[in-house]
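Re: the multi-chain job from yesterday

Posting the exact lines I submitted so nobody has to dig through the queue logs.
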Amino acid sequence: MTPAEIREEVLDILRDIAPDDDISDIDDAKPFREQLELDSMDFLDIVMELRKRHRVQIPEEEYTELASMASTVAYLEPKMKDL
Amino acid sequence: MAAAPLLAAGRTCAITTLNPLAKMIRLPEARGSRLAPLTGISADALHLWSIPLHTSKSQVAQLREVLSASEREKAESFLLDAQTQRYIVCRGAVRQIVAGYLEMAPKQLSLVNGKFGKPQLEHQDSLWFNITHSGDLAVLAISTIGEVGVDIEQIRPIRGLSRMVDRCLAPGERPDVLRLPAAEKDRQFLRYWTHKEAYLKTFGVGIRRPLEKLEIDLTAPPSRRIMNHFGHFPDELAASVTEFCPAEGFVGAISVCGSLPADIAAQAWVGGRFRAQRVG
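And the result, structure tokens for all chains:
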């Protein structure tokens, strides 16, 4: 997947988790938690949805890489480039 | 202005926690409550404040004034107005209540984030707090015992409950959720979740640890509820954890470094009345 496709995939997951939010206006550089009311369980949900959809494993110590859209796409790119 | 009166009789919820089977702490409803005195807190106190996050626009505007510049900036960065409002009320209430304990103006309070983002008081080693919110309710825990963590969750259907159970619960905990009828599984899972969150928030580490390696016994006394802490079986008290009922339809847990006091005072924050007495 390309970075643009990964970004769209993450947006799709966020739409499921935070259906009330208009995430089309999301700022890629800002932390998700400063734009959306994502709690710890929502965050874990993102991790598990990535695993379910794409078999991407994200260890707990690397959760901080998923702070913003930009950092998430950068982190996932090598893991999803061959999908 | 004179010190505010105690909570009206019957509103204070000081319930013994020494007996593990004691009646669960139940937070009072905000409506009609009065402000408790904030100063003179004892050295082994644990207070819980319930904070309704839905309030009038004028109150939101006034609470916004007590926030720091960075808090106001963060408030404006949310994509939805309702989220901005909840953030302002939550942080504004935290500032008002904590500042009351310290006899400071809310705006002068210096709040910093710990290594993993846990808000804490700067240059303060005798008062600790922690905040949680779910839906339109927040709960603030105040402690003079040591670091404190609190978590509440509105009871709701959990997305992908079975995978959440696998990911977040220890093998020994899973049957305790899965054996229940469908209607009760979500609540039972959330009881475990709030215990684990409160415990991890005590140490400011959040969920950056494998939750399935943190094992809880919901029926044990508070000092022995943590059965297994990431492969370590603590034989000495690290933190005590117990649960409380934040409101109808919610579950909650509180954890403190050390022993829980005999009484946990539970009180309600009411924006207008509190503001009128402490700031206005």
